[in-house]
Protein 1
Amino acid sequence: MPNSEPMAPSRDLALVSDASLVVAIARYRQDALAETYRRHAGAVYALARRLLCDHTLAEEVVQEVFLRIWDAPEKFDAERGSLRSYLLAQCHGRSVDLIRSEQSRRDRELKEHRQQAEAGYDIEHEVWDLAVADHVREAISDLPTEERRAIELAYLGGHTYREVAVLLDQPEGTVKSRIRAGLRRMRRVLVDAGVGGVS
């Protein structure tokens, strides 16, 4: 970390560079951490909130990011980029970790549910379900691309509407409308095929 300018007293920290703030943090100056938080916490929170779609989790990520800079300020290298970019990268990494952890939990629960269902499964149901699955795949494949992608993420990927909106970088209302329109198309196709509608 560079130490290109003398360290200012607390009242003047608002005038120093980000790099000098990190130098002060390395010297355990809490006022420097507070000034860093004042400058960058809003951007870090906004990214975490957008990725996680959860206020509480986003706040936890912000706390972790600034705790990391306090615990290991030497990991910031001003020659590789700005402090804000560094903090946002830390935020993105931690948010992705949380998303993956949640997806792993969902996958485990889905596996358990499948195992429980398979315990009482018979061949007649299996044949019927395979036939229905074929019709569903065909109905999905015939959808417009935007509707198909939204439905695949929501129903096959197990994502909430908000998560689908983030993944597709689209407004949540748009995603919901596309999913509803796609399901209506699928319902008509499945009814015509004699396998019922889509709930």
Note: Residues 10-100 form a domain with the Rna Polymerase Sigma Factor; Chain: A fold (CATH 1.10.1740.10).
Protein 2
Amino acid sequence: MIVDLNAYLGHWPFRRLRHNDAVSLLGLMDRAGIDHACVSSASAIFYKNSQSGNEEVAEQLQGHGDRLTQFAVINPSYVGWERDLEVCAEKFGARGLRLYPHYHNYALSDAYCDDLIAAATERGMIVSIPLRQIDQRQRHWLLEVPDVEHSELETLLQRNSDARFVFLNGIGFTGSRLGRADGDLPDNYVIGISRLKATMDNELAALLANLGPERVVLGSGMPFKYPQPALLKVEVLDAPQEAKQAILGGNAKRLLG
């Protein structure tokens, strides 16, 4: 079973997204051989009230819950996030969060961010954090949002050792404590492969050696990206078949229960 932990529904204000509704995304998944995907709202990244995007995704997922799982976009600096989290978890069945600190104008070190993570963890939810959403070299001139730094994630892990994290759309982990065996960090996080290199310096193989295959997961970023490149990275990876199966779906199934 192939499970993608990094997919989206909705709109992006600065470019047209295709395959960005549930039916079209499922068609894209079928062509790539992906069985299940965790989806969040791309629109919610820019909505003043991100809960509106969560509501849109919940509507889209009706009748597709066997293949699509919702991850809620929650802004902990927005008044009323506690009720938004409750609705997403209990009414919409969201199994995780997506956090966008630099888009939503807060820091991962803020106390209310820790409050959100603690509340989500108490509900058994996964916390996913995309380090970037788009390549800054291709950004719109009105958009100036820096990537989340590895150091921000390192301190977040140390403060929230009971939570479960998924770090998405990142690169260069082996140059930080996050990607080293001697990083002295809690092991409560996994890393998505969407930007990792599987050739040349081959960061993907290095992460498997340093952290183990159970700490790496499939995350394509569709429909911002097509899923086939992420799948190809696993296909060409010089690793046992058991490790590849863990990356493609076993680790995600364990996280999602």
Note: The CA atoms of residues 70 and 177 lie 30 Å apart.
Protein 3
Amino acid sequence: MIYLVTGGSGFIGSHLIERLLRNGHSVINVDNFDDFYNYQTKIKNTLESIDKISDFEFTDKETDIRHLATISQSDRYQMYYQDIRDKKGLETIFKNHKIDLIIHLAALAGVRPSIARPLEYEEVNVRGTMNLWELCKEFNINKFICASSSSVYGNNEKTPFSESDNVDHPISPYAATKKSGEILGHVYHNLYHIDMIQLRFFTVYGPRQRPDLAIHKFTKLISEGQEIPFYGDGNTARDYTYIDDIIDGITKSILYLETHSGVYEIINLGESEVVTLSEMLSTIETTLGISATKKNLPMQPGDVQKTNADITKAKALIGYKPDTDFQNGIKKFVEWFLRK
């Protein structure tokens, strides 16, 4: 099978590509190496995902990415330095390859940054995604997996969060773009018979996690003896989901799409284990063997109080079975962090 993965040099994308290649598939990686965080991190992700860990000599962004694209090419892997907002650029990729299924992970991520840059979030997360669906229509590609987010639930008072819950009240532009993607995805499924699964990810963590996310940020600051920004009273809670479990959910979704037709499904991928901010910090402190210095700050606009996934549907439909508890997941993350 030939899979196109957007955002394939990011946190989740690089792990997915690594798994797909190990399973003998061919992969096309489309990533624009956005400046949301250091492009060198994404280059390292890419090298790890294709098992080409080497002493990469960094010079400047454009040169480095084009060099990466050259040295990473193989019979089963190709990387394109491409923005999904550029439909003509994407079209060239679709013309050059016979694509069996698309896993769309590329997005501008983050609740707080989306409040400052809502129009850019709409351009990437909505228009960019629609470009892909338009090309699916033109090139007769009818299998599509799309990354949604637990943020669509907003401050849902009912827990755990179920796919059947009303999600018409997002509280950030980022969440609104993800909800829009789900709605527009159904339009393309209905009009053009694109079999589609929308996966609502719940707070993914693990090796290669984005450096702006709390677990990575806290671990780095604590290990350096710096104070950490601690928002609220510590009682906000998240359904932290280890990266290996997310990848398992994606690959099982791929198998489901390949063996079924007439599909449009929204599926939660979480751990169903809720951990408070205070508990998360304590677990990192214990694992590092270092106490944190906190800078207490008020809750930030757009942040939700709690996320908690009902994964009943994921278990029944695709055989999803997360098996990494939070303590063990943090242990694996810290081990990776200390040797990177």
Note: The radius of gyration is 19 Å.
Protein 4
Amino acid sequence: MKNTRAIIMILLSLVAGTVAVLLAARWVGQQAAQNTSLVVVATQDLDLGSPLTTAMMQDAPWPSGAIPAGSFKDAKKLEGRVVRSPVFKGEPILEPKLAPEGTKGGLPSVIQSGKRAISVKVNEVVGVAGFALPGSFVDVMVSTTDGKEKAVSKIVLQRILVLAVAQEANRDETKPKVVNAVTLEVTPEEAEKIDLARSIGNLSLVLRNPFDRKDEETLGVRRDDLLAREVLPHAASASAPAPVSTPRPVAIARAPVVTRPRPPVTSPVVNNPVSVEVIRGVQKANAEF
């Protein structure tokens, strides 16, 4: 009897627990339905410049407190809009990632307002070995000569967005591509600088980190700067010629010079008398000495 009562109590507890779980799940579902809204998301990966169709989008529930700014609730209103930035499957379609209404598909639709697109001829070296892909940022450097006909290399533009390589604008690929042309997004003034730079010298692209937004002011490098080397102390001592030791003069003892006195000069003794004839007027006389 006691065992039967215990079994009945256990069964009643299990039933009550099951009912409680079902009621709680129902309540949670009702609360979730009340706290969600519909958001248009992509049903597939959307490439740059692709026009939207109804098959590319669908309405999906999204938490009301976490709805992203610029999202849409009706997919039909987005039909025909052009994608300006890549959108992945399941990602909400936002207004900043779409081109203005009425824009046609293709590369022109992804150019920002106030910007221009200009193509630059590149090779494997100029194109950073094919790592300059759509969506990356580069600096533009020109190698030319200055007013004194001396070679100079100078960075003329910094942090320039690569829109496309060759005829491809897809930003999802990360594999390097060696192409013969790169299309850059620039302002009208920057387009003039690129056009002038490629007419007076050779262009090179310098790949940079997309999160590096700081511009570096450079003076350019000339041939003299490239070949000049700073002489280090140890290098200077090694390259300097060894001092030549000059032997010190040796004092040589000399014998004293003895000065002998000269004999006095004496007038010679005249033994023979000297006869002198003196004439005075008409008289003549002889005198002896």
Note: Residues 111-227 form one domain.
